[in-house]
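JOB MANIFEST
job_type = single_chain_structure
chain_count = 1
residues = 280
[input]
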Amino acid sequence: MHLGDIEVFFLDGGTFGLDGGSMFGVVPKVLWEKKSPPDANNRIRMRANSLLVRAHRKNILVETGNGTKMDAKLRSIYNVQDGDPLLDSLAHAGVKPEQIDLVINTHLHFDHSGGNTRMVKTRILPTFRRARYVVQRGELEHAMNPSERDRASYLPENFAPISKEGMWDLVDGETEILPGISVVPIPGHNANMQAITITGGGKTLAFVADLLPTRHHIPLPWIMAYDLYPLQSLETKRQWIPRILAGQWIVVFGHDPDFAAATLHDRGDKVDVETVDLNR
């Protein structure tokens, strides 16, 4: 899809599964299972959604999914798709890892940054060796010193090698990364998660990561139990959803397995979702 001179493509980072109760928080199972049927282990199907953005003669990757470094036990727990679907998707788009100029992580949980690095023989190295990596400064600081509550979500092998190689470009708050491409804090899931907004040709696209992990999380109270600050998530959703509606923005969900990108339409008593194919 073109937004003016900016090209945006959807990249399939592969499927995985997370506990349905955790994904829908206080929403009763009798309600959420109608929308996201769980498997025998109560996991719902998820997808690691990523974007390839071509702008200003640069190849920009938004999110890197689960990567390939998980051991067999973790891959089984999270039902992670075999292979390396993100790099396969990049290859299908005609882009090699060494051609990526910029990687933007919304935050550093393993399902958003796992592909930042890869195992090369016995060493873990940056996957995109020519790239600069962008994240909020506060997010990296917290990832290096997480609490007991969220330690399992931060795997040092996904971000420490980037620090070792001096490849981070850390930002503080809302920042224009390149003309038409900005990062904007969307706190709630954690303190320093960021959205990516892309504007051009009179259109705006917003990658909102775990603020709206799926289309089923659009109703205000449908908030994940994974969120560290659920009331802040509520207020962030209360601000962002009207903006998306009013601006007729395209929204990209962090993990929806069927509707990666969509437009939202206010029908009075509910918000309808119309899928958008970014690769047409």
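[summary]
The domain at 2-275 is CATH 3.60.15.10 (Metallo-beta-lactamase; Chain A).
The chain has eight helices and 16 strands.
exit_status = 0
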